[in-house]
Structures are given as C-alpha cells and as structure tokens.
User: What shape does this take?
Amino acid sequence: MNYLNRVMIVLKNFIVKRFFICVLGSVISLQGFNAMGAPLVACGGNFNQFLQRIGVKAVERGVDKNSVLLALKYSKHSQKVLEMDRKQRTFRLSFLDFSERAINTYRLKNGIKNIERYKKTFQLAKSKYGVPAEVISAFWAMETDFGAVQGKFNTLSSLATLAHDCRRPEMFQEEYVSAIALFADGVIEKEITGAWAGEIGQVQMLPSDIKIFGQDGDGDGIVDLKKSAPDAILTAAALISDMGWIPNQPWIEEVKMDSGFPWEEAGFGRERALEAWKRLGIKSRTESFEANDQAIATLLIPQGRKGPKFLAYSNFKVYLSWNDSFIYTVTAAHLATRLGGAKKLISSDPEDILTVGEMIELQKILKSKGFNVGEIDGILGRNTRQSVRKMQLELGFPGDSWPTRNLLKKLR
Assistant: This one.
C-alpha cells in the first residue's frame, strides 16, 4: 500500500464517527426509524444469539426470511474490524501536505480520461441531477482512486460485528439490516468486500444510501457499485443532489488579496456576499469570479494567510455533508476545480503545521487561559483554530487561525 493510500485510510478512520452520525440522521428521517435512533435489538452477548435477534427485525421489515438466514450464516465476527474501530489514529498533515499528495498526477490524468471515457454517463448525471462531471470524478478519485482501492473487508461480517458491538449499535444495526436487504434483493453478494466500516463500491457508500440512491447507470438491470463505473457515477450524482447541490452554481474558487487583509474575517460563521468580499480587497485568481455579486461566500484559509486562499459558496456545504474533515473537503473541492481546468495552488511558503507535542502544549496553554479547544489531542480542529484566532487578536498577531511556532513561543 502506497503512502497516499495510507494517508487516506488514516483520514477515513479519523472522521468515521462524525460521518456515521450524519448518515444515521438521514436514515432516520428517510426510513422512519425510532426518533432517538435506538438500537433495534440489545447489543453484545453471544454473537450467534445476537444474529438471531437482528434477523427477526429484518424479517419484520419485509426482508425475505430465507435470504435473511443465508446472510446471517455468512456473517462472521471480526476481531480485526473491532481493532480498526478502536484505533484512535489521527490526521495531522497540513493542508498543503495532504492536498499535494491527494491532487497528484495520477488522479488528474485519470480523472480527465474517465470524464471523457464515461462522457455519456456524466452528461446524464448532469442533466438529471445537475452535478458536474468534475465534482463526481473528484469524489471518485478521493474515495478509491477510481475503483482501484475499495477495501478488503467482508461487508456482511464487518457490519454484523459493529452492529453487535455496543459502542455504536444504533448506527450499525440499521446499516447491517440494510445490507441484508441488499443481499436479499441481489444487489450485493455474500462475498462482497469494502471498507472496514461497511462502505461499499467505487464511491464508498453505506448500504442504507445504496438502497435509497442506487442507480443502474449502464442499463444492465442491476446496481453494481463495485464493478460498474456508470452505476457508481450516477449513484454518486443522486446522493450529491440529495445533499443539496444547486445546479449551475460554483462550489469553491481560489482567490488572492494583499498582505494587509483583515484575516480575522476568514472562517465559518463569517460569510458575506461576494460584493462585500470584493470591497475588502479579495480578487479572483482568474480575474473573473465564478459567482455573482449577491452570492454568499465564506473565506477559507486552511494554512493561514501565507497559504492558499479560497471562497467557498453554497455548494461547498455538500462537501461537508459528504465528509466533515476540513482538509479533506477543501482538497476534494479544489481537485474538482483542477479537473475542470483550474491551475495549481499558489502560496507564499506558509509555516508547517506544529508537531503533535507542540500542538498539545499549545492546547493546554490556551485551555489554561479559558479558551475552548475541545479535547487536548494534538489535532488542529475547529475549536483549536477558533481559539488560536482569538489569542492572535489579543496579542496583536494577524488573526488567521494558523498556529505558528512564534505564537507558541510568545505564550510560553
């Protein structure tokens, strides 16, 4: 496994809990599950007895009994899945480190090739759902390198194991029952494999989403997200559309401004109309903005004032729904623009991210001063960024939310 794939796995492990919380909320609203998302059956205990209990629930939901029994037979407890779930691995690359690895020659070259190869499918996705080819292709690249890295965990066993486990049973029991239903309908086979947490196929979708959004893009009468690129493309488009994609509107674009810009205006919660950003001195990288002056945008500077700068528009919210990691979403959004012809990022040699030890030290200092940094974990998350911004402004530093060693030295 190459380094980039290891990076992707680390990132997916880091954000998986928040991802499943978002998915569960959608599943509850769409399928009428109990309001609090309570487990369908008691978790833990004897694994075979648990399978019998959840099998009853699947039958009660209308899944064929014989198919349920077969799915239960093929579901094995996996200690490896539990080990993956328990690993508290964290994602600590800077934006530039991650994006330079994620937006590589292979993905750019093959992304453009695939857009041409599956031109008719992408055109159908655009006409039916309003989602551009480069947006779908970027997610396809980020998730599995266009189907090359889909995971090797047996899906039925992975979901059965996590459904039995008592850490997040309300999430995984619903996904396990959905997987059984897909098996009963012939959508997946007993041997199907994917990510350890149950995502399947070239765009890594959960069984509940496949049930709702699965599309037959190649016209063969079945939905096969592992082997059929057209199926994966059209299904991804359906999901992205449901997340709120607005057709014919931008999602992100790189911008530039002078060094005297008020950096404290960047970040979520400080959005404003494009015309207001223009008055503050923001200019488009291409000299012509993608949106109209009334469009609401948020300024994102993931590596501070010396790093790349972006305006994110309403469609960027879809990226946050797909994956709640800030670095992943900005990278995926920019990759889509690169596939659409945008140039490589510009930056002014920003300072690298603090080491884990330095970040923990900074978080402890900020917490001692009354700032809410969240968990002291060495991760530059949303709360730590906001605390850094406030501390920078108090000390007279540029409030760009990027913690530097000079800031840490000042606080020591």
